[in-house]
Amino acid sequence: MQTTLKKITRLIWNRKRDYQKTRQGGTKERWKLIESRITGTSSLLDVGCSSGLITALAAASGLFAIGLDSNWEVLSDARKKCKANLSLTYVHFVVTPQSVAVLPVCDVVLCLSIYHQWHCKFGHEGAQQILQILGTKARKRLFFEPASRQSKYGPKPPTFTDHDEGSIIDYNRRMLGGLFGKENVEFLGATAASRSESVRYLFAIQMQP
Known about the structure:
This protein has helices at residues 2-12, 24-35, 53-60, 72-81, 115-136, 165-180; strands spanning 43-47, 64-69, 88-92, 106-112, 138-145, 185-192, 199-206. The two termini are 31 Å apart. The longest helix is centred in the middle third of the chain and has 22 residues, at 115-136. It has a single domain (2-206), classed as Rossmann fold (3-Layer(aba) Sandwich). By secondary structure, it is of the alpha/beta class. The protein is built from six helices and seven strands; from the N terminus they run H-H-E-H-E-H-E-E-H-E-H-E-E.
């Protein structure tokens, strides 16, 4: 697996335009946590995939993987550099509370470090609507990683306390539990983030049939 990760990283990593350039270690940690929870799945939708590193890792593990992002330049680079024989595609797509409904259903849906952008653009209710609909697109699991600083969310941020791990985790547990049922929400762990946020927190939601 480590050999595959190194090859894919070299193929699609773009240090000039990819925000994940400061999260290479954290991305490896995230994929390890995600992979441990998706045994028996066959398809994955990565919403806000950026340069598509995790999307490509999913494809390399045998999944049919779809990466979506609104940044055309980053997607174009990912398309050019990914392996031709992977079951992998990248789609330029702008997620809104209206457009999210047309997305396909997959076994696994990733919503990693993108929710705060919807919160800025569409407010709390709009972001919640998008997240709730994404839950209907996941047959088995939805993975969620929020930003861990209030300043990322716009003028009306969530009511957690910056730099307080317990506060951030508790807020997101409650928020996700309100949407999907608290018994279905699992906190997976913290992974390295960037200079502005030392870590971000990863959650998994078990979807009910």
